[in-house]
Amino acid sequence: TGKVEGLEYFAGYVDKMKARNSTVFVDMATIAGASGGKEGMALGGLSYAPTKDLKLRLSSYHVPDILNSTFTDVEWGPMISERWQLRLGAEYMFQGSTGSDRLTGSNFSTWAGGLRAALWGTRGGTLRIAYTRTGSGANYRSPYGTWAGYTSDVVTDFNRAGERAFHLEGSYDFKALQVPGLVFTAYGTFGGKAIDPATGARVSDKNEYNATLDYRFNGDQWPDWLKTLWPRARVTRVDESFNGATTHTWDYRFIVNYEYVLKY
């Protein structure tokens, strides 16, 4: 890693990885779903900020005979008044099989792109909207982590072949009401026009709704050892519709984060 006159860069090689629910490290080909071989991953990226309001990024990874994926985005975030900041973003990514196509046995490629806008208020309110679309060649794969699309949500990624998704989100920080650390967020994401890439047939439409309540103990009334405690409660509902029938799935989560720095 390093930085040269505002241009930050990184490069690396990952031999194996351990999934969150696993106790052993596994080679990158097996993680992606391919059998045989012991391939690792080469990866790298660039980040450049010509001004304080503008940032550009480019990154890519390559697993021989398995998968190559490249991501690029740009963000611009000027203050439009003393109370409001506008943040605009655009992203584009593409991926495909490599070498002997061991992942699926045949060549494939796809892409995804998105636009996002956020309006930040100094008094605690935030509004975000986003739109993404995935190419019809294949579902966009993310075997090594979460999908980087703007519409990647708690349960659904909205990255199936041909899928379009629209995201609307609002949040409020209660610090302005003398309750520092308390933040409420709600959003809905609406996805449709996804297809089976092998046949071109339409598949289900999906909508996801989420409400999240966060509390950070960062107020002056709390001792320092408690200020890194961060509990989060969230409820999510996914509606999936196909041929006139709709199913509902509920997801409930309570998460507690705590950071303690060991000094020696």
Walkthrough of the structure:
This protein is an all-beta fold and 264 residues long. 2% of the residues lie in helices and 53% in strands. The chain contains one helix and 15 strands. The chain has one helix at 28-32; strands spanning 2-4, 7-14, 16-17, 26-27, 41-51, 54-63, 67-76, 84-96, 109-121, 125-134, 164-173, 182-192, 205-215, 230-242, 245-257. Strands 1-2-5-6-7-8-9-10-11-12-13-14-15 form a 13-stranded antiparallel beta sheet. A two-stranded antiparallel ribbon has the order 3-4. A hairpin with a 3-residue loop joins strand 6 (54-63) and strand 7 (67-76). The longest helix is centred in the first third of the chain and has 5 residues, at 28-32. The protein is globular. The chain starts with a strand and ends in a 7-residue tail after the last strand. The model has no long low-confidence stretch (mean pLDDT 94).
Largest beta sheet: strand ordering? 1-2-5-6-7-8-9-10-11-12-13-14-15
How would you spell out the order of helices and strands?
EEEEHEEEEEEEEEEE
Write down the overall mean pLDDT. Answer: 94
For the biggest sheet, the summary is: 13 strands, antiparallel
Tell me what portion of residues adopts beta-strand conformation. Answer: over 45%
Ends: how far apart?
26 Å
Tally of individual helices:
1
Overall geometry comes to globular
* Oligomer kind: single chain
Number of strand elements:
15
Structural class: mainly beta
Rg result = 21 Å
Percent helix, as a range, is under 10%
Give the uncertain stretches in residue-range form: none
